[in-house]
Automatic annotation (TrEMBL):
The lineage of its organism: Bacteria, Pseudomonadati, Bacteroidota, Sphingobacteriia, Sphingobacteriales. Keywords: Membrane, Transmembrane, Transmembrane helix. Residues 451-532 form the STAS domain. The keyword Transmembrane helix applies. It is found in: Membrane. It is a multi-pass membrane protein. InterPro entries: SLC26A/SulP_dom (IPR011547), SLC26A/SulP_fam (IPR001902), STAS_dom (IPR002645). It holds the Pfam family Sulfate_transp. This is SulP family inorganic anion transporter. The chain crosses the membrane at residues 28-47, 53-70, 77-95, 101-118, 125-145, 183-201, 208-227, 268-287, 307-329, 395-412, 418-440.
């Protein structure tokens, strides 16, 4: 509750909290890292979505500044998402005009605000930990595999692609193999130098005042210039490529706005609903994942995040941007860079805006290979060996959903993979409930059986209790004890009463102790009182 109250604009107005020197020492360097990571991702996702490159940057700017200020999350970073590229591409081509597509994004934002107001964000509380851990590891592996081609100078696939099947008719595995046959040694040198800086530079405290990723970019530009005219020089495709705006008039001419005259179209409403649902799910998943890796272990308010994302999508649509979500890649880079508050995300959005207006020519000198090195390090930290060991020690009911989620996300996409992981996790949850719904005790030489029900007997316990009662031996005395139960699901009560009614046919005598005819679901305020 406290995180809900302290989040958003009201919380952000606590200037002392966010702009203390202690936090800024962490947040400013982190914002530079997120800015460098977000820049090519915004452009790559816009390109893959069939949208103007400018729209990707607008989305990143709004995601940083607007969502950053409204959100209650301290480390999450919003922007255009790879998981929406196919939906966006189909929407732009299918709705007839880009302005109609923007209307769908606007309406999606309105729907997300409604989701937040009706507290739909609480669904995030039902994502199993094993699935979230698997999602983080999967994103780490995908980052390593997807960035490897960029690291060696093969840039056929767009920045930000997370799908197994690529737009260049290859897949992640074949893309790596092709990259090995088309190595650009200039890119390899820049990558290796960048990785060495990222690993060793922070270990020297006196030098760590300068952020390692910023140094990586500077060294990358210098090396790219040094390689010019040699046999290992970098091509234009191996560099960042943002639109160059020559004047303020040209800049304002890039903005577009929704066509509200199309608001009654069914296909527009369906597209908006698709954006709202998919973007909300991805946001909630990313939020859970970021909270997992937050060193301070803060809990982000999910309903406020939906309000923030809805606000961001409305503003993005009004400026000509793409739909956005909280993005795990940028958020992970933010956490790994040492960010402490939302100031990092906000400054990263400001840096995107400033760079677009003032130094596009300088940014276009940055090699993609040095940015790939930053993402390779992020991927390594997300998919570290220690995480696999940790999940293994938790036991198979945790480890199997974890591994299944990784494999499923890798070969499909984020939402499908998480869905498959959820099914497996629920299966193990049901197995656990087979054992934990009651205590079974046999007395008097097997002639008397006492079944003591658990404190909470839910619908998930139905199968376990049904199997137990069905297998009660003939000619025994059964006592079903509900004295410890605060709640028993109506379906379970029905099974118990049906068993008592029919037990005489097997010569079984059934008695019920402290079992009511009806149990009301405990109210949240009553539960909170008990906790206090």
């Amino acid at each position: 509750m406290q995180s809900e109250q302290n989040g958003g604009i009201a919380g952000f107005l606590n200037i002392k909290k966010y702009f203390s020197s202690k936090n800024l020492k962490k947040d400013i360097p982190s914002s530079i890292v997120v800015f460098l990571v977000a820049l090519p991702l915004c452009l790559g996702i816009a390109l893959a979505s069939g949208a103007p490159l400018f729209s990707g940057l607008i989305t990143g700017i709004v995601g940083g500044i607007v969502v950053g200020m409204v959100s209650g999350s301290q480390l999450s970073v919003a922007g255009p998402a790879a998981g929406l590229t196919v939906i966006v591409l189909n929407a732009i081509t299918g709705l007839g005009s880009y302005e109609t597509f923007l209307l769908a994004v606007f309406l999606a934002g309105v729907m997300q605000i409604i989701f937040g107001l009706i507290k739909a964000g609480t669904i995030a509380n039902y994502f199993p930990s094993s699935v979230i851990e698997g999602m983080l590891a999967a994103i780490g592996i995908i980052l390593i595999m997807k960035q490897f081609p960029h690291a060696v100078g093969y840039d056929a696939d767009f920045e930000g692609d997370e799908g197994f099947t690529q737009t260049d008719q290859h897949n992640t595995l074949s893309g790596v193999m092709i990259a090995l046959s088309k190595i650009n040694y200039g890119a390899v040198i820049i990558t290796m130098v960048s990785l060495a800086i990222l690993i060793y530079w922070p270990k020297v405290k006196k030098l760590a005042v300068v952020p390692a990723p910023l140094l990586v970019v500077v060294i990358g530009i210098i090396l790219a210039l040094a390689f010019s005219g040699t046999g290992i020089d970098l091509r234009d495709k191996q560099m960042v490529n943002i639109p160059v705006v020559n004047s303020m008039g040209e800049f304002f001419g890039l903005f577009k706005s929704p066509d509200f005259s199309q608001i009654g179209r069914v296909d527009v409403l369906l597209t908006a609903a698709t954006f709202a649902i998919v973007a909300s799910l991805e946001t909630l998943l990313s939020l859970e994942a970021v909270d997992k890796i937050d060193p301070i272990k803060r809990v982000s308010p999910t309903n406020r995040e939906l309000l923030a994302q809805g606000t961001g999508n409305i503003v993005s649509a009004m400026l000509g941007g793409l739909p956005m979500t909280a993005v795990i890649v940028r958020s992970s880079a933010n956490v790994n860079a040492g960010a402490r508050t939302k100031v990092s995300a906000i400054i990263h959005g400001m840096l995107l805006l400033i760079s677009l207006l003032t130094i596009p020519m300088v940014l276009n000198m940055i090699p993609l290979s040095c940015l790939a090195a930053i993402l390779l390090m992020t991927g390594y930290k997300l998919a570290r060996i220690g995480l696999f060991k940790h999940m293994w020690h938790k036991g198979l009911p945790q480890f199997i959903p974890f591994v299944v989620t990784i494999v499923a996300i890798y070969f499909t996409d984020l939402l499908k993979g998480v869905g498959i992981g959820m099914v497996v996790a629920i299966f193990f949850l049901l197995l656990t409930n087979l054992r934990n719904s009651y205590f079974y005790h046999i007395e008097s030489n097997g002639k008397k059986i006492r079944i003591r029900l658990a404190e909470e007997v839910s619908f998930l316990n139905k199968a376990a209790i049904q199997v137990t009662l069905t297998n009660v031996p003939k000619e025994t005395e059964v006592v079903i004890d509900g004295s410890a139960s605060r709640y028993i699901d109506p379906d379970v009560l029905e099974i118990i009463h049906n068993f008592k009614h029919n037990a005489y046919t097997k010569g079984v005598i059934v008695s019920l102790e402290n079992i009511k005819d009806r149990y009301d679901v405990p109210k949240m305020k009553d539960l909170l009182k008990e906790l206090k």
